[in-house]
Amino acid sequence: MVCINCGSPKTQVSNSRGNVQSLRTWRRRHCANCKTSFTTSERPDLESLYTVSTSQKSPVVPFSESLLAVSILEVMAYSKHTPETSFWLLKTVIDKVVQRHRPTEPLSTAAIAAIVHETLHAFDKVASLVYAGRHHIETD
Fold first, then answer.
1. Residue 82 burial (CB < 10 Å; 0-12/13-18/19+)?
2. So what's the pLDDT on residue 24?
3. How far apart are CA 127 and CA 85, in angstroms?
């Protein structure tokens, strides 16, 4: 990895910590050229690992973290929370997707929607109801 300060490719990992509850690995890097230290976060590229199917007859498409982010951001517009909250909800949803599904089989859009709805319901009831309405999810 190149140094974010000077652009030198001569950086080394000086500390690394995996996270048991998420896919991310925290790394502290040090540049041999300018002596700057900086932190990076590493995780698998889900868009190259997971595919999504809307139905058995439709072709599978790559998983899109961007589409998922937009759908969460749109329903969170109805809540009192900041847009940054949507980012953390997205991370939570992605962690749940990876914990529950292996990349060997396509994910259904219904499975993704159920995870998003469950996550929103635990955090913001209004946003979860808006999401359920948009994605035709039955609620209690």
1. exposed
2. 83
3. 12
Question: What does R_g of the chain's alpha carbons equal in angstroms?
Answer: 19
Q: What is the pLDDT of residues 26-41, one digit of tens each?
A: 999 999 999 999 999 9
pTM: 0.79
Residue 115 has pLDDT above 90, yes or no: yes
The angle that helices 125-134 and 109-123 make with each other, rounded to 10 degrees, is 160
What confidence tier does 16 reach under pLDDT thresholds 50, 70, 90?
Answer: very high
Cβ neighbors of 58 (< 8 A, separation 6 or more) are none
Span between the terminal Cα atoms of the chain, in Å = 49
Residue given tokens 């599978």 in the structure block: 60
- 56-61 long-range contacts (CB < 8 A, ≥24 apart) are 60/106
User: How far from 49 is each of 5, 95, 107, 114, CA to CA, in Å?
Assistant: 31, 14, 11, 20
Residue closest to 103 by CA, chosen among 62, 139, 67, 66: 62
Q: Are 32 and 8 in contact, with CB atoms under 8 Å apart?
A: yes
**Greatest mean pLDDT among 2-11, 38-47, 81-90:** 2-11
